[in-house]
Amino acid sequence: MQTPLLIAIAFFIILMNSALAANDTVAALMNSYMAQGANIGRAETGKQLWQKTFTGQGEFSQRSCTSCHTQDLTAVGKHIKTNKGIKAMAPSSNPERLTDRKKIEKWFKRNCKWTLGRECTVQEKADLLAYINNQS
Amino acid sequence: MKYTVAISAIIFTLGFVMLPLVWSDSGFEFGEFEEYDHRSTGVAAVTNPVYREECGSCHMAYPPGLLASSSWTRLMSGLEQHFGDNAELDAETHQSISKYLLANSADRSDYRRSHKFNRYINANDAPLRITETPYFRHEHDEIPKRVVSDNAQVKGFSHCNACHTKAEQGSFNEHDIRIPGFGRWDD
Fold first, then answer.
1. Against a cut of 0.90, is the pTM above it?
2. Which pLDDT belongs to residue B36?
3. Contacts of residue A110 in chain B, CB cutoff 8 Å?
4. Does A81 contact B at CB distance below 8 Å?
5. Does A136 lie at the interface with B, CB-CB under 8 angstroms?
6. What integer is the mean pLDDT of B165-178?
7. Contact residues on chain B for A106, CB-CB shorter than 8 A
8. Is the ipTM reported for this complex over the cut 0.90?
9. In this complex, do A113 and B86 lie within 8 Å of one another by their Cβ atoms?
10. What are the start-end ranges of the E strands in chain B?
């Protein structure tokens, strides 16, 4: 009987699917950024933006993605004001990351506005996406 | 002998019935007796998954019964400037969360502590912070700065669950208070 083999194949497919889920979302999102005029995201440019410091108004005058998410995307972060823990950004540490397009766009919008004082451009989002997705 | 057993039984039963009153939050007053059968001493726990996800990602998901509906309406109309952070929501999510908050706000809840939060708010006020409500202030007026604001493990009064270990379940009972670095708190 080939049943064990079939089961093994089925398991393998399921495993691969969940591993690829993040990549599918990322690829689709990257395509949509490119359709809006961006070049394909560059992780190195994304990293520079991630670590860049911006001047904000109010309580926290020096702001950066790292203010809450830290320099190490595979580590947990902490909300700078409320202290609430933030799960790791890297899909390699947190498989839930980059699997929900709506969620990605929501946080880009909120967090770019707080950190940079404006929405991110399509190119900036493409670069950040590439950088976050690249972390292992 | 028969009577002794019967009387002991009555006293025992009475004692048992009175236990929740003795154990309930401090300041039991007769005027509140009728409210007692509404619900426990707390506020309603947070149950809405959308609210928990959208609002609870950045801070404790505050039980809606801690603010009156006028406050929630005001707060939800200014999410772009949410205490210094941007907390914008899409229209659909905004509507769903508003509905949940308003339906369970302090003035519409039948939980005892929500009644108290609502009762002392001035008619023309719609405070945005739970810590600015008169009832909150009254309840925390004896707590020294060094155990909360100056305590690095607490940081401030807005972090309810730093000390109220069951805050997210809606319980603010004195027996559940553990102040980090200080321990229990008794009035």
1. no
2. 46
3. 85-88
4. yes
5. no
6. 91
7. 90
8. no
9. yes
10. 178-179, 183-184
